[in-house]
Design brief:
There is one protein chain. By secondary structure, the chain is α/β, with parallel strands linked by helices. It has 3 domains: 3-63, OB fold (Dihydrolipoamide Acetyltransferase, E2P) (Beta Barrel); 74-223, P-loop containing nucleotide triphosphate hydrolases (Rossmann fold, 3-Layer(aba) Sandwich), CATH 3.40.50; 228-297, Probable gtpase engc, domain 3 (Ribonucleotide Reductase Protein R1, domain 1, Orthogonal Bundle), CATH 1.10.40.50. It is built from 10 helices and 13 strands. The strands form 3 sheets. It has a 6-stranded mixed sheet with strand order 10-9-8-11-13-12, sandwiched between helices. A 5-stranded mixed beta barrel has the order 1-2-3-5-4. Helix 2 (93-106) packs across helix 9. The two termini are 29 Å apart. Mean pLDDT is 87; it is low at 193-198.
């Protein structure tokens, strides 16, 4: 007799969906055939209803998502920890703001972690993003602080870490999760990782019902490459702009060149970071050049 259960998909790969219940049991499932006709693709991070005989099962329903991505194939991400180094390599703030913008657009909370503050002062970077309303953690490799605060933020949420090679992301993750390599091996064995050669997203428990998404190698998530944000929606993705958006002289103000623009005035007076504003203008110009057919060509991840 089949039993109906609800679980979190902690890995979706090669037509198999590994669903973990709140009790911690993991079931290897297939998806019902109707999903293909409905253009629904279950993703890691999805809450799913499945029927099981106690060993394997069949996913019968994917519950409503908060957000979803095609690359990495991940759903319901709550927060993204953006790891940038104070030095070696120097942070690329335009790339950082692209990722922050996509997070805001998707309803994901961006959190900035500045590593290598023992090599260089990350105070200017911290000031920019704290001034914009984001949580920022400066970390020194010699005496890492804030680890308990970061761990607490993972509780009950689906999180991921993104950062370029050399920023100290692996060191950070090892400090946060000393047993992660053992946990990874254990989960891989449960999921039959050796049977599948394609590397996909896997969710690992992070305490109190939270998960950390292992995008391949905990690598950079270039979310901006896969998301098109219309120029009209861009200003709302800069949270420090929001108090000024309805104060501009002209309706439909682009906040790039118009007279009587409250956002530009806030930048001139120092209430908005000039770096953030200049990056907004660069992203706006990019968005302005996007054609309607390019937007139409982009399909929502997983169609759910």
């Amino acid at each position: 007799m089949l039993e109906k259960k609800t679980g979190r998909i902690i890995q979706a790969i090669a037509g198999f969906y590994y669903c973990q219940t709140k009790e911690g049991a993991v079931f290897e499932c297939r998806a019902r055939g109707a999903f293909r006709n409905e253009e629904v693709t279950p993703l890691a991070g999805d809450l799913a209803v499945f029927e099981t005989d106690g060993q394997s099962g069949v996913v019968t329903q994917v519950l409503k998502r908060k957000n979803a991505f095609t690359r990495p194939p991940l759903a319901n991400l709550d927060q993204l920890f953006l790891v940038a180094a104070a030095k070696s390599p120097a942070p690329n703030l335009l790339v950082l703001d692209k990722l922050v913008t996509v997070c805001e657009y998707k309803g994901i909370e961006p959190v900035l972690i500045i590593t290598k503050t023992d090599l260089a002062d990350g105070g200017a970077l911290q000031e920019i993003y704290e001034g914009a309303g984001f949580c920022v953690f400066p970390l020194s490799n010699r005496a890492p602080a804030h680890l308990d605060e970061i761990r607490a933020m993972l509780s009950g949420k689906i999180s991921a870490f993104a950062g370029n090679t050399g920023v100290g992301k692996s060191t950070l993750l090892n400090n946060l999760f000393p047993g992660l390599s053992l946990q990874t091996a254990d989960i891989s064995q449960k999921l039959g990782r050796g049977r599948h050669t394609t590397r996909q997203v896997t969710l690992y428990p992070a305490g109190e019902g939270g998960f950390v998404a292992d995008t391949p190698g905990f690598g950079t998530m270039d979310l901006s490459q896969y998301e098109i944000i219309r120029k009209e929606a861009l200003a709302e993705c800069f949270r420090e702009f929001r108090p000024y958006l309805d104060r501009c002289r002209f309706t439909g103000c682009s906040h790039t060149a118009e007279k009587g623009c409250a956002v530009r005035e806030a930048c001139r007076s120092g209430r908005i970071s000039r770096t953030r504003y200049e990056n907004y203008c660069a992203l706006y110009e990019n968005a302005r050049q996007i054609k309607e057919w390019e937007i139409a060509k982009k399909r929502p991840a997983g169609r759910r």
